[in-house]
Design a protein that fits this description.
The complex is a heterodimer of chains A (298) and B (320).
Chain A lengths: L1 H37 L6 H17 L5 H24 L7 H23 L4 E2 L8 E4 L2 E4 H23 L1 H11 L1 H6 L4 H27 L1 E2 L5 H14 L4 H21 L5 H15 L14
Antiparallel strand pairs in A: 1-4, 2-3
Chain B lengths: L2 H25 L5 H26 L7 H18 L4 H23 L4 H20 L19 H19 L2 H11 L1 H6 L4 H24 L12 H14 L4 H17 L4 H18 L13 H6 L2 H9 L1
Amino acid sequence: MELNSFAQQLVQQLINGVSLGSIYSLIALGYTMVYGIIRLINFAHGDIYMLGAYVGFFCTSILGLSFFPALLAAMAVAAVTGIVIERLAYRPLRHAPKIAVLITAIGVSLLLEYGGILAVTPQPRTFPAVFPARIYTFGGIVVNSQQIVILAVALALMVLLTYIVQRTKIGRAMRAVSYDTDAARLMGINVDQVISFTFGIGSGLAAAAGVLVGIYYNSIDPLMGIMPGLKAFVAAVLGGIGIIPGAMLGGVIMGVVEALVSGFISSTFRDAAAFAILIAILLFKPSGLLGKNIREKV
Amino acid sequence: MRIQTKTDLASLACGLTLYALLEGLILADIIPPYWQLNVIRVCIYIILATSLNLINGITGQFSIGHAGFMAIGAYMSAIMTVKLGLPFLVAILTGGLAAALLGFLIGLPTLRLSGDYLAIATLGLGEIIRITILNISYVGGASGFMGIPKYTNFTWAFLLMLFTLFFIKNFVNSTHGRACIAIRENEIAAEAMGVNTTKYKVLAFTIGAAFAGVAGALFSHNFYMAHPTSFTFMQSFDILTMVVLGGLGSMTGSIVGVIALTGISAYMADYPEIRMIIYALLLIVLMLFRPQGLFGSKEISLRIFSRLTGGERRGAAQGN
């Protein structure tokens, strides 16, 4: 009986972990694509996710839109914001030292966070219930309708992304730029346009994650992007930064580990576990689970 | 007397004069209490900024977890004074040593990483330190460490700041410092020239951590309490902004950066959001238009004054 209830709780935490993890995966995809293409840790990515959540919130609560139009609106606004940020803050620094770009990214992140606080007040807001909350029970294991929606939307977006990257012309251009920027430019690819497009897609995915978190936790605030942003980055590194399937895998692993830690140890150690994973992966396999080792050439 | 010793003595004299002047103004109550607090804050942040500059600017290892070491110093020193009843100097030393030890232990494995990865790893380590403290009820856990006596005053803060500046300045100008600068300029080339890169990176990281611990000790004994929320990565970003504003690699730049930003935040204390937006815009605009910071890696020194006082000494200086 004791073992049975343990197994039941384990499966329950796995389910919670996978639905949380698919949200991390969506954010991690943006990190990994941007890193893959311009070798930049876009610290502001977590705040794009916050922006998406707020656009979704205003669309559903004030404009009265239903879930899918709100999701699309959030993704569109975030994509445009991402492109604008890249154009104004990162493009002028294309040939600057890495540290300068990293510091700019931290600056953009702070600007979005505190600009957000100024614009929408720091008070958390309750995300309206866009779905009738149903709870399904399978032999003691509880699954609610939000978790199903999160998984379905996240999966659909990942399939769409894989299609774009693998099967379309712009996707091929993205892969080419990521592989060798200079060679891609010589082959007539408009590198700046490809980078803009990458920021747009990445930001759109982050915004979708923001809306999904809104319906999952029912609460959003302007600083909500910091922790998930960092964890999604850890997820991207875990899977192998620059590798799209790696980000998906890393996100799910992060979500599951976090659910297990908060379920079986203590929820206060949840965030520490994420960083511990990061340190461990950086020390033992810095190229990530799906990455290959590349030696630095002089 | 060596030129080095001469300029050291001159700087020391200037520092002590400044100390006497400020202490006089504080004793005479010409500086109002609010600004007295800010003067102490400036001293503490100068220790933090110059020690971070040693890691980030001089050695070129991008660390953004300085608040973690500060937290270690703050809590260790508070344990010494509150729980064990030891004098403040012992507490400061213990705080510094504990942070140094941790910096050494953390630095050894993580400094193998470079660039972005190191930045994220140090940020993560800083957060792990904070979350661990948050879960130790012996030091107050989430509600903070209460009842710390206020030992920090202007004298402690200023003299420790002066010590830090001299230590780091002379470190940078020594063989070890040159090795660190070589690592910053080109790690692979430095290694090829026989510089033990791991040793110097860890050395710089440990020294930086030690001074962060000292600053943490001053910090917790200034505000009657130590709270985990004071040591989030926002604190690290604050210190980083000061260093970057002044110029990575410039100690005097860090001092100017600290004074400028502490001034802004003192004036904007009632509008914390606007203060952070100013910080953010400052970082972005600075990187876009002057990525090397206000001073680049240059130093303002007393030589500027000697250069102004006639040709005879200039000739002598050139002779050296």
